[in-house]
Fold this sequence. Notes:
By secondary structure, the chain is mainly α. Helices cover 84% and strands 0% of the residues. The protein is built from five helices and no strands. The model has no long low-confidence stretch (mean pLDDT 88).
Amino acid sequence: MQSGSAKKWLRGGLLALAALQTVASVWQYVFPRSFYDDFPTVKLDPPYNEHLISDVGGLGLALTAMLYFAAWTLDSKVVLAALIGYLIYAATHFTFHIRHFDHFSFLEAVGVGTGLGLEVALALVFLYVGWRVHRAESAAATRTEAMTRRDVSDQEPV
């Protein structure tokens, strides 16, 4: 995969993750009661706590901002930082839910497990692509720097 093509996939992936996170986070932050009452399976968790849900929504909005910023700049270090943060969030969220399916029907458990597992898988794929882009850019920068040093040393008087 060429660097330009990888960056297009990376930008698309970052925007997709950010869009999904935006929907849930805005809903949690702006309408916490509605999120608790209406989002599938959330009401199966412990009792409603407005403070907790709106705080989680605010944290999700911070993560969303990082994903959008990474997609906009495509700076490989920013991309990697945003994806590592997203992966940690997605993996811990997935882990919690697969350990707490007690009150879920079979279909709810499959739906939640699959959806949250897909978030982890996508984060890993985009992290891998981001890492490959970062390595390619770092190698190119090292080659350019070496050529520049060589050109400068050739121009110095002896």
